[in-house]
Each structure stands twice: as structure tokens, then as C-alpha cells.
UniProtKB/TrEMBL annotation:
Residues 1-23 form the signal peptide. Residues 210-234 form the Ice-binding protein C-terminal domain. This is Ice-binding protein C-terminal domain-containing protein. It comes from the Bacteria.
Length: 237
């Protein structure tokens, strides 16, 4: 576990000790159920069809957002999602996506020349998954930005999987911003600069497919056998 992960876990545990009463956010589909054990607000089922389920992470969007016009601000997020795979289905992959959106605005001097202020932002997100109760099969993939003035989309994807047992998704993030004023003889208290950073539209996408029942396999094999028999009979002597 690296330093960033330890920091985020410690902060999440500290927050939990202050407020132990919150409603877990649960989403049910035919293929799986997902519960955010650390969610402060319900996540949203955006779409579900053709084996693709998209879940908007409301709590992550609320938390991964910070701005300041003077000095420092920051925020963190920690989510633990328990995924229960339903009988007759398998999870074939998953991803976490979103967009970092940042603003850096150093206040200019009154005459329009560059000021001596400063604006800074930094964001880090870690995404991992593991079987319950222990085990890691998608470990601590990281997306980081520094000094972002604009938008940067990102996606962290597991690739092809075949999971019929329950597993956890872990998502942790930290946002830091700071802004220092431009100080002049005319404005000794300074002219405010501005810095912000947030994660826009954080989304889990989970891919699933139905697992054929044993009798379905039997019918398929029988059909293949019949086709093979017909082809042999049609083969010229």
C-alpha cells in the first residue's frame, strides 16, 4: 500500500469515526447487485442494457471537488463497492471513467502585466478490485494530474474478465488546490488568484453476460452432433 493509499484510508476511517450513521447506496440489476459501503449519498443507475451497466458516482463527484481564491483547500473520497454476481451471469469487465476539470488563474498586476501570485492544483485517483474477502486481481491503477488548466478525460479499464464470484471495487481520490495573491505596493493585501479542480461525471461501467444453463449446453452439443451427421450423409461416396 503506497503513501497516497494510506493517507486516503486513514482519512476515510477518521470520517467514519465522526459520523457512523449513513445509508448505504445499493443498486440492483438482473446480473449483479452493488453496494457502496462508504457512500454518503446514493449513486445513480444511468443505463442498463445489452450487458452494459453505467453507474454515476454521485458521492465521488460531490467529494472530488475543491477550489480556493486564497491559500489552500482540499478534499478526498474513499468508496468501497461490494459487487454480488447473480446466478446465471458473469462479469466480463469493468471500468472507471471521468474527466478532470481544472482552472488556474494567477491575478495580473493592475497594469495587466503578469502578477507575482501563484495557482496550483493536483489530483490523484486510485482504482483497484479484489475477490472477497481478500485478494487483488486489478491493483491500484492510478490517474494523476498536476497544474491542469482545462479538461482531461480518463478511463481505467480491467480488460477482459470472467467473474462468477463476488468481488469488491475500491476507489480512492484526493484533490488539492492552492492560490496565492498578487501583491503590489498599490494592493499590499494582495489581489486574489484562483485555483480549482474537480472530477466531472465519474462513472463505473460494468460489463456482463448470461451464462447458459447446463441443459442449454446439452442442446447445443446435440445440435452440433446432428449437423455433423447430416453433413456426413450428404458427402458424396
Amino acid at each position: 500500500m503506497n503513501t497516497m493509499t494510506r493517507l486516503l484510508v486513514t482519512a476515510a476511517l477518521a470520517l467514519a469515526s465522526v459520523s457512523t450513521a449513513h445509508a448505504t447506496a445499493r443498486i440492483d440489476t438482473a446480473a449483479f447487485s452493488i453496494v457502496n459501503q462508504w457512500g454518503d449519498s446514493p449513486d445513480v443507475l444511468l443505463s442498463n442494457g445489452n450487458g452494459v451497466t453505467r453507474i454515476g458516482l454521485t458521492s465521488a463527484a460531490d467529494s472530488l471537488d475543491a477550489f480556493t481564491s486564497r491559500y489552500q483547500e482540499g478534499n478526498f473520497y474513499a468508496g468501497l463497492f461490494e459487487v454480488t454476481v447473480h446466478a446465471g451471469y458473469r462479469v466480463t469487465g469493468f471500468s472507471f471513467s471521468g474527466t478532470f476539470a481544472g482552472v488556474l488563474d494567477v491575478a495580473p498586476n493592475p497594469n495587466g502585466t503578469p502578477g507575482n501570485g501563484f495557482a496550483f492544483n493536483s489530483g490523484n485517483i486510485e482504482f483497484s478490485a479484489g475477490s472477497r474477502p481478500h485478494g487483488v486481481f486489478y491493483g491500484e491503477h492510478t490517474q494523476r494530474v498536476d497544474m491542469l488548466d482545462g479538461a482531461l478525460p480518463f478511463t481505467m479499464s480491467s480488460g477482459q474478465l470472467s467473474l462468477t464470484t463476488d468481488f469488491n471495487l475500491s476507489l480512492q481520490g484526493l484533490i488539492l488546490v492552492s492560490a496565492y495573491p498578487t501583491v503590489t505596493s498599490q494592493y499590499p493585501s494582495g489581489i486574489d488568484s484562483f485555483a480549482s479542480l474537480r472530477v466531472v461525471n465519474p462513472v463505473f461501467t460494468i460489463y456482463t453476460m448470461a451464462v447458459p444453463e447446463p441443459e442449454t449446453y446439452g442442446m447445443l452439443l446435440a445440435g452440433i452432433a446432428v449437423i455433423g451427421l447430416v453433413r456426413r450423409r450428404r458427402r458424396p461416396a
